[in-house]
TrEMBL record:
The gene is folK. The lineage of its organism: Bacteria, Pseudomonadati, Bacteroidota, Sphingobacteriia, Sphingobacteriales. This is 2-amino-4-hydroxy-6-hydroxymethyldihydropteridine pyrophosphokinase. It is an enzyme of class 2 (transferase). The keyword Transferase applies. One of its GO terms (biological process) is tetrahydrofolate biosynthetic process. Its EC number is 2.7.6.3. NCBIfam families: folK. Belongs to the HPPK family. GO terms for molecular function: 2-amino-4-hydroxy-6-hydroxymethyldihydropteridine diphosphokinase activity; ATP binding; kinase activity. Signal peptide: none annotated. It comes from the Bacteria. Residues 87-98 form the 7,8-dihydro-6-hydroxymethylpterin-pyrophosphokinase domain. Gene3D superfamilies: 7,8-Dihydro-6-hydroxymethylpterin-pyrophosphokinase HPPK.
Length: 162
């Protein structure tokens, strides 16, 4: 069994419902959700002039390989009607693999740990709620240390407690 951390995000349609729907699909297609952070809201990072985002981090126990999980989350994005616009643009649902066990993967289609974890408070803050002591396998720092070192000014607040 593998331990995988996923980030879900949405800023179009009904973001809260889409995060809930994503949890159901993840349970169906990826594995058992063992921890779920609160739902957080923040301004759009990277591209301005977008609606605010909701984000959540999930810990999932999965029998699938990282490649199979990527395929499963891409299926879920399709099922939930993801509309792709621009890079870092608005979306009905986005699912990223943050960590897969403590493995380092550099495939053209799959970078694990996710390359932006340490730069984005919208990832670090929910991640810290459920996995503060998990160590980043490249930086050899816990999520808590990464958050303390973060230079991202983005303000991320709880929208809804789990
Ligand atoms: N760890 C990962 N999790 C999810 N997708 C990944 C990962 N590493 C690489 N990818 C690739 O990224 C592509 C998805 O890009 P996407 O359009 O979601 O980027 P984005 O969400 O706009 O930006 P970002 O990746 O910075 O969050 C997928 O096709 C997938 O192959
Ligand atoms: N606050 C926030 N900003 C973002 C997000 C996101 O999930 N939350 N996702 C993006 C696409 O990768 C770009 N910007």
């Amino acid at each position: 069994m593998n331990v995988v951390y996923l980030l879900t995000g949405a800023n179009l349609g009904n973001p809260e419902k889409q995060l809930k729907d994503a949890m159901n699909e993840i349970t169906e297609r990826v594995g058992k959700i063992t921890k779920a952070s609160s739902i957080y809201e923040s301004e759009a990072w990277g591209v301005e002039d977008q609606p605010i985002f909701l984000n959540q981090v999930l810990e999932v126990i999965s029998p699938l390989s990282a490649t199979k999980i990527l395929q499963a989350i891409q299926q879920i994005e399709l099922v939930l009607g993801r509309i792709r616009t621009q890079r870092w643009g608005s979306r009905t649902i986005d699912i990223d693999i943050l960590y897969f066990n403590n493995e380092i993967i550099h495939d053209p289609d799959l970078q694990v740990p996710h390359p932006y974890i340490q730069e984005r408070n919208f990832t670090l803050i929910p991640l810290n709620e459920i996995a503060p002591n998990f160590e980043h396998p490249i930086f050899k720092k816990t999520n808590q240390q990464l958050l303390m070192d973060s230079k991202d000014p983005l303000h991320v607040k709880i929208a809804k407690h789990e």
